[in-house]
């Protein structure tokens, strides 16, 4: 049954994306940018509905009150394609720094360009990165929210964290709050898999880290608060969903956490 529901969901998910892009393009490219943003936000909401109705996966968001007014950096854990779009409806005007190759994809790239997403060559240094920072400042000066995944790429649930120091440089140079986000969508929408699993999980938006800290101290604090919340949610999610097939990384992390709990009991 899970295999059948997964195939059905994946088919409808991508059909939904393509049809919306094609059918709504005339409206999207004519109306003002912020008005057009309703289309990808509604697409995200429709995906949540599809996950709930076809797969049986639901989620709840804790800590929406922790999102500041105006510009900030949202720093989520990154485990799945799900978390690339899931929080769009909860943000006023988010902007991403994208691999430049994504901007070359027909329709998707045009949609991203309309929303003034910021392309970057991941191997670039020096002047190119200076230009990316300049573009980022320009977008944030209008009150937008920057979404950055501190680990850079998707990591399986429970995996040892590998945070990139780039977010500490952005924190220092941009001088705006950073909002960590912990969640485990990778248990329900695993990376490199077509399987989708039913169940319920939490997204936890943590209190913002205000500007002004030493970058090294900020970096250590970001990792500490995010990983502590991530561990708590891993335990909670597995207890709520005992049927889930866990990846080896999650099994290993849970074993470690239980040993620590037993040692301190």
UniProtKB/TrEMBL annotation:
<keyword id="KW-0812">Transmembrane</keyword>
<comment type="pathway">
    <text>Lipid metabolism.</text>
</comment>
<dbReference type="GO" id="GO:0006654">
    <property type="term" value="P:phosphatidic acid biosynthetic process"/>
</dbReference>
<keyword id="KW-0808">Transferase</keyword>
<feature type="transmembrane region" description="Helical">
    <location>
        <begin position="7"/>
        <end position="29"/>
    </location>
</feature>
<dbReference type="GO" id="GO:0003841">
    <property type="term" value="F:1-acylglycerol-3-phosphate O-acyltransferase activity"/>
</dbReference>
<keyword id="KW-0472">Membrane</keyword>
<keyword id="KW-0012">Acyltransferase</keyword>
<dbReference type="InterPro" id="IPR002123">
    <property type="entry name" value="Plipid/glycerol_acylTrfase"/>
</dbReference>
<feature type="domain" description="Phospholipid/glycerol acyltransferase">
    <location>
        <begin position="72"/>
        <end position="186"/>
    </location>
</feature>
<dbReference type="Pfam" id="PF01553">
    <property type="entry name" value="Acyltransferase"/>
</dbReference>
<protein>
    <submittedName>
        <fullName>1-acyl-sn-glycerol-3-phosphate acyltransferase protein</fullName>
        <ecNumber>2.3.1.51</ecNumber>
    </submittedName>
</protein>
<keyword id="KW-1133">Transmembrane helix</keyword>
């Amino acid at each position: 049954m899970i295999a059948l529901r997964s195939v059905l969901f994946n088919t409808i998910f991508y059909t939904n994306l393509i049809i919306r892009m094609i059918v709504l393009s005339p409206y999207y490219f004519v109306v003002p940018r912020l008005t057009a943003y309703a289309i990808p936000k509604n697409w995200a909401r429709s995906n949540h509905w599809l996950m709930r109705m076809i797969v049986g996966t639901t989620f709840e968001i804790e800590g929406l009150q922790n999102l500041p007014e105006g510009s900030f950096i949202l720093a989520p854990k990154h485990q799945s394609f799900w978390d690339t779009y899931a929080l769009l409806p909860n943000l006023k005007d988010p902007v991403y720094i994208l691999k430049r190759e994504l901007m070359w994809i027909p329709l998707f790239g045009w949609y991203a360009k309309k929303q003034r997403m910021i392309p970057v060559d991941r191997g670039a240094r020096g002047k190119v990165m200076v230009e990316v920072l300049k573009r980022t400042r320009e977008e944030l000066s209008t009150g937008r929210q920057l979404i950055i995944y501190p680990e850079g790429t998707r990591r399986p649930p429970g995996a040892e964290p590998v945070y990139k120091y780039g977010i500490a440089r952005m924190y220092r140079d941009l001088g705006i709050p950073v909002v960590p986000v912990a969640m485990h969508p990778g248990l329900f929408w695993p990376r490199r898999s077509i399987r989708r699993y039913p169940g319920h999980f939490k997204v936890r938006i943590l209190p913002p880290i205000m500007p002004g800290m030493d970058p090294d101290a900020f970096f250590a604090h970001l990792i500490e608060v995010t990983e502590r919340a991530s561990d708590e949610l891993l335990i909670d999610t597995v207890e709520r969903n005992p049927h889930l097939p866990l990846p080896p990384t999650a099994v290993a992390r849970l074993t470690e956490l239980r040993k620590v709990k037993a040692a301190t009991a």
